[in-house]
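[Meeting: bench + compute handoff]

Bench side (C.D.) handed over the final construct sequence. Compute side (W.E.) agreed to return the predicted structure before the next meeting so the bench team could plan truncations. Sequence as handed over:
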Amino acid sequence: MQEQFISHPIPPTWNEHSEILILGSFPSVKSREAAYFYGHPQNRFWRVLAALFEESVPETKEERKAFLLRHHIAVWDVIASCRITGSSDSSIKDVKVNDLTPILSGAPIRQIFVNGKKAEALYNRYLLPQIGLHAACLPSTSPANAAWSVEKLVSSWSRILEDLRS
């Protein structure tokens, strides 16, 4: 697979009731094909959130959007465009970041979370200096993070519930 310059093809999901913002790094090939976040069938993002809220796993793009909005969660990625080979976070270069201003000024976001260490590194390098809000890093739901079981991810990701309920 060769390196490509790609602009982020998925708009953010959020509304004026969103209280939590979850940022990934950049959509995988499978997510870009599915035209929605965390579209790889082995990514545990949707299973983890469904377990947290004790609901069935949303399957379609529409179900996933409705699920996020119902639970006051906004989702987007740090990167607006970059050079990338396939889905490899380690190949990312020539980064341009997304503008979080519309979400942060249009919704009562209490906490920003990043999904994994790569998203955390990108956030801290490019966005933290701009917006001054620290992000809490949650373990990646990517299938590449095989050391973390769904149960262990759910336990760690339960911080989201604490922030929503406080």
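W.E. noted at the follow-up: The CA atoms of residues 14 and 69 lie 7 Å apart. C.D. will use this when planning the next construct.
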